[in-house]
Amino acid sequence: MKHFNSLIGRAALLLVAVLGLSAFGSSVLAQTENTPFPQTTELQHGPPLGNQEFVQLLYQLPKQPGLRQRIIDDLRKRGIDFPVTPGLRSLVATKSGNDSSLLRTLEEADRRRTNPTVASLPPAAEGLELLERTRKATLGAAEGMPDYLVKQQITRSHAYGQSKNWSVYDRLSIAVSYRQSSGEDYKLLSINGLPPTQDQTYGMKLGGTTSTGEYVSALSDLFRPESRAEFQMVDTDTLRGRRTIIYEYEVKKEFSRQTLGWGEGGSMRQQTISGYRGRIWVDREINRVLRLEDISTDIEPGFPITAASKVIDYEWVAINEQKHLLPSRSVVELTDLYRGQTEQTRNEILFRGYRKFGAEVKIIDIDEKDFPPDKPEEEPARPEAPPVLKPAPKKP
Q1: How far is 53 from 63, CA to CA, in rounded Å?
Q2: Is the entire prediction scored with pTM above 0.70?
Q3: What are the backbone dihedrals phi and psi of residue 14, each rounded to the nearest 5 degrees, phi first?
Q4: HEC states along the chain?
């Protein structure tokens, strides 16, 4: 494997998001007026997909992977008129390479088929109200977040070309602290189970792909007024037993603070700001984001990193006997072009052992013994794949 460094993160300060609270309400309304939410009827285009048509499309997928987005769109817009059986799920997994987005969309189409009232999109006004409540709840939670400590277990893989034939090259253990006053801080605890050397830190000197901003900053950045995010209600889903509304969003490059960095030999060589867009899954009852998908856009031509995406799943954890919605797992993928050779990297991240971080403790003093032992049964089979979004629609 060639030695390179790449990094994705946000140069985000929580203070900025908090200071923008008072101005955000009018900003949201101005944004959504330019991108109106679709009514429920706008999702209905043509007759429902029949079993035979759906299976025929599946069999074309291995040779025509571009059909994936068309199938997902048809499932969302047209629905299905057939039950989803275990055999059909197995066929979808085989023909799509176990594509999580396609499988999830098919399951949601089946829920709409059996219970169209519960699974349908709400009216536009209701969707806008849910988004506004979620904005307030997210930024309020960020403002009230306690200082905490958590361990990241990161499996890093790479693949040559566009093959996604992943090969694991190392496993990292990272301590991450969060403070209201200073944001997130990172310490490398181990590499493949061994303590790091003195010159190995979590960042450019480590080599490979690293990422920051999976915590409070990822969501608060999206909802802060300066980002001028545009949202559109597009689908429903059931995520970990919770009924959710899916919103697509876009943050233009000129309003973004998402940073991509690339280096060589342990030093940062180039950095650029990209735009980003993706989807959020919002719990319809508790007004909180349960999943965020993010894909970089408008990456500077000629920049070594040509693509970047991220998925974050959020779950409730207890810190000092108080429940907080924080990341449970994440997947980060980058594609880089270096000296004519394309390579993809994938970081699968698990978040374990959340606890209160004392004011007198420093991240440099933390080691493995400060976290509970890892439990094999806590490991998920495999984190979900990063998002692949259709091209953004051209606006008139």
Answers
A1: 17
A2: yes
A3: -60, -35
A4: CCCCEEEEEECCCHHHHHHCHHHHHHHHHHHHHHCCCCCHHHHCCCCCECHHHHHHHHHHCCCCCCHHHHHHHHHHHHCECCCCCHHHHHHHHHHHCCCHHHHHHHHHHHHHHHCHHHHCCCCHHHHHHHHHHHHHHHHHHHHCCCCEEEEEEEEEEEEECCCCCCEEEEEEEEEEEEECCCEEEEEEEEECCECCCCCCCCCHHHCEEEECCCCHHHHHHHHCHHHCCEEEEEEEEEECCEEEEEEEEEECHHHCCEEEEEEECCEEEEEEEEEEEEEEEEECCCCCEEEEEEEEECCCCCCCEEEEEEEEEEEEEEECCEEEEEEEEEEEEEEEEECCEEEEEEEEEEEEEEEECCCCCCHHHCCHHHCCCCCHHHCCCCCCCCCCCCCCCCCC
pLDDT digits (tens, 9 = 90+) for 330-388: 999 999 988 788 898 999 999 998 988 876 566 766 777 777 776 654 444 444 544 54
Q: Is 167 exposed, middle or buried (0-12, 13-18, 19+ CB in 10 A)?
A: exposed
pLDDT at 109: 87
Helix axes 51-60, 86-96, angle to 10 degrees: 30
Beta carbons of 307 and 335 less than 8 angstroms apart: yes
With tokens 């197995």, the residue in question is 90
Q: What is the pLDDT of residues 31-88, one digit of tens each?
A: 333 333 333 334 445 789 999 999 999 999 888 877 888 898 889 888 899 999 999 9
Is residue 302 packed enough to be buried (19+ CB in 10 Å), middle (13-18) or exposed (0-12)? exposed
Between CA 182 and CA 178 the distance in angstroms is 7
- Alpha carbon 336 to its chain's center: 19
- CB-CB contact of 297 with 280 (8 Å): no
Q: How far apart are CA 205 and CA 3, in angstroms?
A: 11
